[in-house]
Amino acid sequence: MKKTSQPLADLAAERLVDYIVEHQLETGSRLPNEYVLADILEVGRSTVREAVRRLAARNILEVRQGSGTYISGKKGVADDPLGFTFIKDTTKLTHDLFEIRLLLEPRVAAKAAQYATDQDCLLLEEIVQAIEQSYDEGTEEHVQLDVQLHAQLAKMSGNLALDSLLPVIHQSISLINSDFQGKDLREDSRLAHRRILEAVRDRDSVNAYDAMLRHILAVSASFEMES
Amino acid sequence: MKKTSQPLADLAAERLVDYIVEHQLETGSRLPNEYVLADILEVGRSTVREAVRRLAARNILEVRQGSGTYISGKKGVADDPLGFTFIKDTTKLTHDLFEIRLLLEPRVAAKAAQYATDQDCLLLEEIVQAIEQSYDEGTEEHVQLDVQLHAQLAKMSGNLALDSLLPVIHQSISLINSDFQGKDLREDSRLAHRRILEAVRDRDSVNAYDAMLRHILAVSASFEMES
Fold it and tell me: What residue stretch is flagged as signal peptide (chains A, B) (predicted)?
């Protein structure tokens, strides 16, 4: 296997990112083929392949066998982007992730309430209902739906950075604690989600803030007791 | 060039991460050679190479030509881990990053003051002095030193997740706004850093909280005016 030099592939990867940004390529767009890319990036084809692999590892590109290379829908957010895999004390890490949520999410809920469109509210209600259905049917779907609920609020808050960051925090908590059930918490969460939904629907920022604060304190306290 | 199948390399990368975590390999440790890794991961050597490349792209491993593969000091935090490169409105993104800092950092400063050791305080003072020296000599070093100052406070706060996250937020702000000078802000920042340092030294959480809040509001306001 031919060895591609590290720095050249790094440079090619950087140029490819610039190309994507300059051409405003959107999620799902297909990149030009290898020959064309080699021309554009002014490197050999093996370096193009290496650069593509690096950007695929960062979830910026997605290689579909036999079809081509596409802009990934994961928006360049790598799996475990903040390196939490390597923190050994997962109980402490979870506690610390909840502290971040406690600082960020009440304001997220307040802003979501302030900026919500009717369409946003409908989408939020759908997620809340799907979570309740998952509770009722005893499925595990509510875990992912819960991440989705908080991600939707982050999107509604209008803060672009939180829109990228909060799903990472949530996903980390669920991954680290895949055995955490929080069963006793379901009735509590059901009420909390409804309270948040109502406040957003009423465009009531203050109540949305308080409802989210109470919700996160409750989930976090329940985690502390089980661990 | 032999094509390694995607899913197999993914699986091998995942197993390699598990191996690193289980064996508690620390930053700078050298991995076993390719032959041994192929045995451990139960895949061929070309798949080992592919897995190593992926983990290198995620800053988990570092390949040193002619020497071997090492655990990277970047702790698995990829370059631009949250995909900010692809957000086009950089002014809005900067504003949103400051909002995150405003929510997180006053508490970071308060906790840093509460938990500070004498050693921590000395290190903090060294950074503050180096920033002042950079201001005085008109060098650009203060930009990186400022990231370091806030990273040091994050470490002192004891929150493991913030210790990973805050440097990413800071680094993003400096990268996006590499032309932002904030010259008029230097006297202000000089005072603010001294105020934070004093509060931490006095183990005065309340003053540390307030000093940080004022500092971030001032920097953020100055950015808004220049942009």
Answer: none
